[in-house]
Amino acid sequence: MPRLTETVRWRDVSSGNIQKVSSDIAVQSAVPFSINLLFDKVLGEAISREGTNRIGAQLSAGNPCLGLFQHIDSTFADSKLFAGFGTSIYDVVAGSAGVTGLTASAKQHYVTFLNSTLMTNGSEARSYSSAGGWVSTGGAFNLDGIPAGLKYPLEFQDRIYGAVTDKLHFTSNPSAGSVSWAGTGSGNIQIEQEDGGGTIKSLNKVPGYVMIYKERSLKRWNTDSTFPDDLVNIGTQSHESVVRARGKNYFFYGPNGFYSTAGDYPKLISRPIQRFVEGIASSFYASVNGWSDNNDIYWSVGNVTLNFDRGFTETYTNVVLRYNIDSQTWAPMQYAHAFKRFHQYISGTDVLNVAGDSDGQVLQLNTGNSDYGDVAIKYILQSPEFDFKFREFKKTISEKIFVHSDGTRGAELQARLDYDDWKQVGTIQDIVTEVHIKPLTANVFEFRIVDSTTGEQIKLRGLDFPNVDVHENSK
């Protein structure tokens, strides 16, 4: 029974998650599964994500966030962070409701123009300015003339755009500090009813184009052509999933996955997290919501059931999929809160990522090392399959496995042999742990490092296998 002459080392996870790929062609620096670990902070290592903390008080217990937006005023001290819960719009920091009596459960969408912020929800429209507060008539957006049912307000080339069913409406250019929905330069355009694409689900923009997302088609319009260009027969079920970053749109279309476009044919970017894409419930497609800070994109995808084949499944709640634009790596994460809306919040000189949850709260992301309420952050790092280049023969790993990590005192080292159940084989300490094991025999080996943290960020470097014996036959 010959022993491999050299220690087998797994020490590079820089490619992040790449799932549902045969081990024969898998990228050696990729992992098939992880939770709450980031791969772009220190290249080659997996680092546990940061936590969350609540901003202000609970605003509306039991109610999901319907909208989240920061009004950035020309006098920055007059800027406000707004959140919609129930039938109200709240000033998050002050903890008070500035608007009440809105349609319950109607999603709120915002845009800022002319130093004022417009909110529409398909039933009502309101606008805010630091000088006049919230108003329901007049204002910079001529609320009395706004088309009934307008959704998805968007500023593009000095006009405000919005959608009603399958029509795109737009205002005049501003005059005397306001725009008009009926004046010179305003109008509307029918977005092909006959193409089977469904109604308009979102509006966004890239340089040169308004992007028009229907449920099953995507079009672009440069404001000059008679008809918008028909780009592709995919679209989105969720306006909140369409994220603008670095001159591109990133969006979700179920069940296919996540795409990017700069006004050209969309590119599928989510193949590396195919198990998660397939695990998103179809009932949640219309609720997928995201945000980008121009470095990372965060999409909240609800509760996800992952199918690992051979009848083995795992379910994770409150999943957020994080995509790093530069490294193009994916990091699946699980939070203590169900995020319904994301946005940016500039607080003084700090630029923060914030999210509204399902229980009337707004939380700051990426702060501390536990979720709000001192909830521990559970992390899992799963190794690729190891067959040690002799898949056809049984192998035995004996005596010890070295684990390289930082902060992992008490974490579990688990193993799965030939796709059987996961079982603990040892406990990890810190820096370098020599885990003494009973002999493990299989054709294919997989390992997991599993634990939770509240006190510090965890760093995982990998595993070493110094003693691997190859059997002389396949039995």
Explain what this protein looks like in three dimensions:
The chain is mainly β and 475 residues long. It has a domain at 8-48 and 380-470: Jelly Rolls (Sandwich), CATH 2.60.120. It contains one helix and 44 strands. Strands 1, 5, 6, 37, 40 and 43 form a six-stranded antiparallel β-sheet that branches. A five-stranded antiparallel β-sheet has the order 4-35-42-38-39, with no helix packed on it. β17 and β18 form a beta hairpin. The protein is elongated, with a radius of gyration of 26 Å. The mean pLDDT is 96.
So what's the overall shape?
A: elongated
Helix content: under 10%
How many alpha or pi helices? Answer: 1
Please tell me the CATH architecture of the domain at 8-48 and 380-470 by its name.
Sandwich
Q: Which residues sit in consecutive blocks of at least 5 with pLDDT less than 50?
A: none
Distance between the termini: 12 Å
Q: Work out the strand percent.
A: over 45%
Mean pLDDT: 96
* Largest β sheet strand count, sense and barrel closure: 6 strands, antiparallel
Radius of gyration: 26 Å
CATH topology of the domain at 8-48 and 380-470: Jelly Rolls
Number of strands: 44
Provide the CATH top-level class of the domain at 8-48 and 380-470.
Mainly Beta
> Which class best fits the helix and strand makeup?
mainly beta
